[in-house]
Recover the amino acids of this structure.
């Protein structure tokens, strides 16, 4: 008697996401292919954390835009990973290089936990933001190494900008190692709380595409300037993205 093949009830859902869903067991473990794929994703995540920021490539991609390269007090990657507090403060020598002027906006490209994500997605997002903000006076783009989100507060304050957006490499997961996050903070000063920021995350080719991310961030920047605040008191009303076509990855 022929036993009919079991339908793969997870196939449609797997086609719409990079998440590991319905992999199926082999005894008490995962199938070999799924286990090897998991180990490969873990290796990509580790590489994403430890790969140095390609600062010169970013400068080249920002051709035509003035930029400044700075570092946090962490100094090196090991210190950055073990001392998050130092990643939130500017190196003293670099702090002296940032001077206040009549800017509307400061933009920081920060390596964070995925420098590769910044190199791949950061310059394109910067240009999309500037295109969407006609009339805004943007300070030179700050490229920050060994940087945490809060480093943008000190940078924004030194530049005299009323609002700062930090584009930072997000913590790699086992489905994506190239994700960029954007953190918008009104009136940046050292000591700001995370609840005083707005975030747009998962910016990457297979996540939130740069044009869609730029539209959301531009909305937040304009809303923040009008309301003179960011964070939990600023509710995003930009609207939802169109539904994805069936079978297209989100």
């Amino acid at each position: 008697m022929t036993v009919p093949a079991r339908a793969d009830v997870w196939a449609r859902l797997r086609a719409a996401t990079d998440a590991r869903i319905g992999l199926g067991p082999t005894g008490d473990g995962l199938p070999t292919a799924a286990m090897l794929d998991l180990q490969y994703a873990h290796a990509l995540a580790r590489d994403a954390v430890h790969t140095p920021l390609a600062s010169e490539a970013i400068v080249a991609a920002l051709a035509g835009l003035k930029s400044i390269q700075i570092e946090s007090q962490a100094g090196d990657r090991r210190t950055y990973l073990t001392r998050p507090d130092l990643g939130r403060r500017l190196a003293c020598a670099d702090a002296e290089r940032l001077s206040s002027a009549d800017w509307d906006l400061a933009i920081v490209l920060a390596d964070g936990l995925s420098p590769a994500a910044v190199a791949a997605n950061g310059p394109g997002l910067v240009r999309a933001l500037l295109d969407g903000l006609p009339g805004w006076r943007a300070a030179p783009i700050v490229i920050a190494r060994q940087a945490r989100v809060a480093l943008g507060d000190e940078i924004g304050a030194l530049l005299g900008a009323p609002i700062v957006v930090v584009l930072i490499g997000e913590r790699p997961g086992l489905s994506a190692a190239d994700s960029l996050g954007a953190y918008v903070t009104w009136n940046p000063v050292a000591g700001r709380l995370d609840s005083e920021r707005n975030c747009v995350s998962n910016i990457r080719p297979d996540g939130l595409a740069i044009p869609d991310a730029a539209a959301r961030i531009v909305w937040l920047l304009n809303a923040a300037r009008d309301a003179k605040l960011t964070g939990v008191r600023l509710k995003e009303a930009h609207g939802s993205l169109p539904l994805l076509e069936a079978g297209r990855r989100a």
Summary: The domain at 50-227 is CATH 3.40.50.11240 (Rossmann fold).
